[in-house]
Amino acid sequence: MKITCLGAARCVTGSCYLIEGAKKYLVDCGLFQGGKEIEKLNREPWGFQPGEIAAVFLTHAHIDHCGRLPKLVRDGFRGKIYATRPTVELTKILLLDSGHIQEVEAELQSRKNRRRGRSDLTPLYTVADAEACFPLLEIIPKDKTVPIEDDLRVSFRNAGHILGSSILEIWCGPETAAHKVVFSGDLGRKDQLILKDPQPILAADSLFVESTYGDRNHKTFEASENELIEAIHHSYRSGEKVIIPAFAVERTQELLYVIGECFRNGRIPSMPVYLDSPLAIDATEVFRRRRDEYDEAATEMVRNGIDPFSFPELVLSRTTEDSIAINQKTGSAIVIAGSGMCTAGRIKHHLKHNLWRPGASLVIVGFQAAGTLGRSIVDGQRAVKIYGEKIMVRAKVFTIGGFSAHADQSLLLNWVSHFENPKLRVHIIHGEPRSSEAFAALVKDRLGLPSHVPNLGDVITLRPIEAEAAPVAPGPEVAAQRFDRFMTRLATLPPALQAKLWAQMEADLARSEARLETALREG
Ligand SMILES: [Zn+2]
Ligand SMILES: [Zn+2]
Question: Can you give the pTM of this predicted structure?
Answer without folding.
Answer: 0.83
